[in-house]
């Protein structure tokens, strides 16, 4: 049986430069982290890079979709992006919003919050897969944008590192769940902790594994409020 390998994309600035030539000076890349997690927020990031800087591709060499980078490399790029970008912002949708809106609606809300926190404001959006019909800005949403657009790849790293750090903080509040290790995603370790302890306040109660654990424990999640949304802005 033959196997079809996935294309090995290298993010570039072709879309951004084409938009710059059309007069869109502030092109924002937008991406999220945490859609598939069982616990914690969905975190989105928006980044505008200085497209008139000729050495920008060289400075960001090796930057790609955050999932393809080690934690150490993500931390390095996180700091580099903050230094190089014109503006960086994040926005979050908390677990209760995921439960009430569904994960797509919550992701759109987090992305919109990140976009609104940008200064200067964007004139065009490049989005990873999910369009934002309620945001009145010209935009393109396309699959694997974080492996194609360097600006979206930058947003991918900012979102991922920001969310990972938030979940490490949540480990201090709820150590029984080991959020520092799996960041709220559905690992065997997380499932075992969830089944043993039942859900905590940052679990997404609309998700199947969390519902199962709630029913097995026959107790609702605690009413303790979740952590405040992530703050936005460059560092």
What this model shows, in words?
The chain is of the alpha/beta class. The protein has a domain at 14-173: Ribonuclease H-like superfamily/Ribonuclease H (Nucleotidyltransferase, domain 5). It contains 9 helices and 5 strands; from the N terminus they run αββααβααββαααα. The protein has a 5-stranded mixed sheet. β1 (27-33) and β2 (42-48) form a beta hairpin. α3 crosses α6. It is elongated and about 60 Å long. It starts with 13 loop residues before the first helix and ends in an 18-residue tail after the last helix. The model is unreliable at 1-6 (pLDDT under 50).
Keywords:
5-stranded mixed β-sheet; disordered N terminus; 13% strand; 40% helix; 5 strands; alpha/beta; Nucleotidyltransferase, domain 5
Question: Briefly, what CATH class of the domain at 14-173?
Answer: Alpha Beta
Distance between the termini: 50 Å
> Count of DSSP E strands?
5
Task: Specify the biggest β-sheet.
Answer: 5 strands, mixed
Topology, please?
Elements: H1 14-21, E1 27-33, E2 42-48, H2 56-59, H3 71-84, E3 87-93, H4 95-101, H5 103-116, E4 124-128, E5 139-142, H6 150-173, H7 179-182, H8 188-197, H9 208-217
Parallel strand pairs: 1-4, 4-5
Antiparallel strand pairs: 1-2, 2-3
Describe what is shown at a glance:
The protein is α/β, with parallel strands linked by helices. It has helices at residues 14-21, 56-59, 71-84, 95-101, 103-116, 150-173, 179-182, 188-197, 208-217, and strands at residues 27-33, 42-48, 87-93, 124-128, 139-142. The N and C termini lie far apart (50 Å).
